[in-house]
Specification:
2 domains, binds uridine-5'-diphosphate-glucuronic acid, alpha/beta, Rossmann fold
């Protein structure tokens, strides 16, 4: 099959490389000539484990290529995926569909035969209808089907999520859409990955419902963590105790500083907007968004309290800035609210992150960046683990204690045992544990 992927961002690049690896012929199109030049030289603009090798292999084998010219790439395509960004629109939380509709217009202008146009971008219910309308308006002769195929991959585990998905959701309105999408995913179908066909609007909503549900699960356990602290219980044991019930499931029950990233914050807001446009209450999702926003700032208060209630003139060392490990992504990372609140309280912030520093520099000011964990801790008044990178899981605490000005450790990801750290002489604070 010939596949065109419009947008070589996170989703487009991972999906394009994986489709090529299945044996399809894939052209990734991006408006940014700098990005295209970089990809042609074999350099990958994002940090995602395994992606550079996968791209290199498929480029070498002639199945994957990059271009900034959409028109010529479309000739003979069986499926054209739209995988451009849908950021939150400033002010109202609605998904901004400018890039999606621009892509639809450009595709319409270049169409030269029958094909299926598929949205992989996360788009509100009804966007597929609008794409269909835009294309038919520009090209009444167009012989197209419009499908929805939301992506469920997680940053940091994107390739394995793509190749071994829990499910593939495809929304179609006609037989051709169904036939072409079955062919696109045939390599996974043979692996017995469940391929769920639904209507297009349902498929669009499934994406938002999935992310809102996961955000709710995290927020629920975070509130249970607060309750555990108040009543002297242990949130990790509560999570295990409820998670073993198959109806609940044990995943996404790790208490922490609140969810961040490029998806949950934006998609929960967009779902709220869609619901309000249709006058349907989604009060649970609204509560989740509010609780998560408050939580990020509350984490800074927790650090300040661990330092005796005052951080004026003190240096706070933070380990991990990205919204989660194995990514360089800083979008809506809890660290942003934490750093700003610490600075507002008069602290000097020093930080170390294995991959996120370049992105962090774009959003944070007046942060001192250390070249490693121990340099970060040296002379600080407290050390705080914000993101659970693997390399923070077996720290040399004797060395850290010797260099810290005060042995204060705040572990916002619960990666250590309280009794062990206290036995080492630390004043240790974590989340939802006695
Ligand atoms: C999320 C979804 O997990 C993917 O299925 C989806 O495809 C993607 O959004 C998207 O819509 O594109 P991602 O944002 O990469 O993926 O990251 P997650 O691993 O889901 O983590 C999101 C946030 O929740 C992180 O800040 C993480 O630290 C936090 N989290 C996650 C917790 O605090 N506790 C948990 O138990 C799990």
């Amino acid at each position: 099959m010939k596949i065109v992927m419009v947008g070589a961002g996170y989703v487009g690049l991972v999906s394009g490389a994986c489709f090529a690896d299945f044996g399809h012929s894939v052209v990734c199109v991006d408006k940014d000539p700098g990005r295209v030049a970089m990809l042609r030289e074999g350099r990958i603009p994002i940090f995602e484990p395994g992606l550079a090798d996968l791209v290199a292999k498929n480029v070498r084998d002639g199945r994957l290529s990059f271009t900034d010219a959409l028109g010529p790439s479309i000739a003979g395509a069986d499926a054209i995926f739209i995988a451009v960004g849908t950021p939150s629109r400033r002010g109202d939380g609605h998904a901004d569909l400018t890039y999606v509709f621009d892509a639809a217009r450009e595709i319409a202008a270049a169409l030269d035969g029958p094909c299926v146009i598929v949205t992989k971008s996360t788009v509100p219910v009804g966007t597929g209808d609008e794409i269909e309308r835009i294309i038919h308006e520009a090209r009444p002769d167009a012989d197209i089907s419009v499908a929805s195929n939301p992506e469920f991959l997680r940053e940091g585990a994107a390739i394995s999520d793509f190749k071994r998905p829990d499910r593939i959701v495809v929304g179609v309105e006609d037989e051709r859409g169904r036939a072409v999408m079955s062919e696109v995913y045939r390599p996974l179908y043979l692996n017995q990955a469940p391929l769920l066909f639904t209507g297009r609007r349902t498929s669009e909503l499934i994406k938002y419902a999935a992310n809102a549900f996961l955000a709710t699960k995290i927020t629920f356990i975070n509130e249970m963590a607060d309750l555990c602290e108040a009543v002297g219980a242990n949130v990790q044991e509560v999570a295990r105790g409820i998670g073993l019930d198959n109806r609940i499931g044990s995943k996404f029950l790790h208490a922490g500083p609140g969810y961040g990233g490029s998806c949950f914050p934006k998609d929960t807001l967009a779902l709220i907007r869609t619901a309000s446009d249709h006058d349907v209450p989604v009060s649970i999702v609204e509560s989740v968004v509010n609780a998560n926003d408050k939580r990020k700032r509350a984490m800074a208060r927790r650090i300040i309290a661990a330092c005796g209630g005052d951080v004026r003139g003190k240096t706070i060392a933070l380990l991990g800035l990205t919204f989660k490990p194995n990514t360089d992504d800083m979008r809506d990372a809890p660290s942003i609210a934490i750093v700003r609140a610490l600075q507002d309280a008069g602290a000097q912030v020093r930080a170390y992150d294995p991959e996120g520093v370049e992105q962090a520099k774009l959003v944070l000011e007046n942060v001192e960046y250390a070249p490693g964990v121990y340099e970060c801790a040296a002379g600080a008044d407290a050390l705080c683990i914000v993101t659970e990178w693997d390399m923070f899981r077996s720290l040399d605490f004797a060395r850290i204690k010797a260099t810290l000005r005060a042995p204060v450790l705040v572990d916002l990801r619960n990666i250590y045992r309280p009794e062990e750290l206290r036995a080492l002489g630390f004043s240790y604070v974590s989340v939802g544990r006695p």
